[in-house]
Amino acid sequence: MCRRNKFIVIIIFSAIILSVIIFFARGRGLPAGARAPAKRAEGIPVKEAEFIYDAREKRNPFMALIGSDGRILEPRISRKRDGVIDLEGIIYDSGSSSYAVINGEIVKAGEAAGDYQLIRIEPQKIILSKEGKELEVELNTEE
Description:
Blueprint: H1 3-27, E1 40-41, E2 44-45, E3 87-91, E4 99-102, E5 105-108, E6 112-113, E7 116-121, E8 125-130, E9 133-138
Antiparallel strand pairs: 1-2, 3-4, 4-5, 6-7, 7-8, 8-9
């Protein structure tokens, strides 16, 4: 088969495949080139579904599993306790994008953390305020 014939066969084959794709898209009630609607998860459209991470009964991912001396540490499970501040981690940025993980919730400066107001986030500690009194909580780097 010469080169010209091969080229014509490829064009015809491509046209047939494109026609079949258009036919099936229109057969589903969609205009040519349109996408199928998003699938629903449990009756909720995919766009509206929101993922919420529940850290209940899970270990703190910021704490090491092996100590500096090489021994294996038992992971401490974070449990919410009323009135107790459990500083689990700090995501520090010298600008204004710092966050703290307090009692399983991600909080930035100015937001409430339980009964406390988060005043400032530093690389290794946070400053909280409750009823006008300031409280410093340092980050545990090892269990």
